Amino acid sequence: MRYRIAPLFCRPWTLLGISPHLIESHYENNYGAALNRLNAVTAELEALDVETTAPQVISRLSQEQSALLNATLLHEVYFASLGGDGRTPPEIIANAIDRDFGSVKRWRREFVALAEGLSGDSGWILLTYIPRDGRLMNQSMANHGIVGGIPVLALDMYEHAYHLEFGANAAAYVAAFMRNIDWQAVEGRYTDALTVPPPRRLEQPQFRDVPSITPEEVQDMLNAGQRVQIIDTRPRHSSTRSHDIVEGAVWRDPDRVEDWMDSLSKDEPVVTFCVYGFHVGCTSAAALRKAGFDARYMSGGHYAWKAIKGPVKLFETA
After folding, report:
1. CATH 3.30.70.2190 fits 12-193, yes or no
2. Domain locations in the chain?
3. Domain 205-314 CATH assignment equals 3.50.50.60
């Protein structure tokens, strides 16, 4: 694998307060050096005999390769973030920023604060789209980004990006960067990112018609004082080994749903759960729905509830 150099997206002579010399030096000596080293490390890795090479050598080279690849990718987004007037984001990206930060003004203050917080230090400030959550977020990072995140705007806060021209005055460099953001390009990367699907969710085809509810949604219902019937349907062999139960829940035998369903009210929603949110909680909810109850199963089950620190109580067996 040979990585190819990306041309400069911005036109250095058009930038306000950032000289062509600074961009040229940054592109040639930092981005170029990272790319060349990336190709050298990649070639070294590909030439290794993995059967005879020490694992520590393979690990060191692989970690260096990942860091270098990250550096080259972020530099490419950085140079492609420059070249505009930096003032007003176009409608699509502006609306997204309003949604996720409250306003463009608030986003700008947070982004600048993160950058100025790295003054004298090293790292990157990114505006990143997270497909899993369908939202934008700012991040301050050194080497590792958010898994699955797609940077749409990148500010290099390593000293090589500004020291040649701004010296120790990182705040002036940040201000100059903000004046030169190419918002059309940022919006283009954002709309491209919107086409990336989120990670695949857990699917249980046999229970496709049985609605689920998340532990957080159950917690919100309880916190709001909403009446809900929570039924612990963990199998007897699991429940008898457990020391706790969801606070407000009652245990019922999943093998005898028809025997106890008449004790429930059809005027209030029912939430069933098992150990992990798979078969038993689903079949219990399905049986209750068939009988006319507004029943859902809690995804993730008992352990998901505990993982979000939902309240539990001592499980007292009869």
Report:
1. no
2. 12-193, 205-314
3. no
Q: How far apart are the first and last CA of the chain?
A: 65
The tens place of each residue's pLDDT in the chain, 318 residues long, gives 899 999 999 999 999 999 999 999 999 999 999 999 999 999 999 999 999 999 999 999 999 999 999 999 999 999 999 999 999 999 999 999 999 999 999 999 999 999 999 887 889 999 999 999 999 999 998 766 788 999 999 999 999 999 999 999 999 999 999 999 999 999 999 999 999 999 988 888 888 899 999 999 999 999 999 999 999 999 987 766 778 999 999 999 999 999 999 999 999 999 999 999 889 999 999 999 999 999 999 999 999 999 999 999 988 765
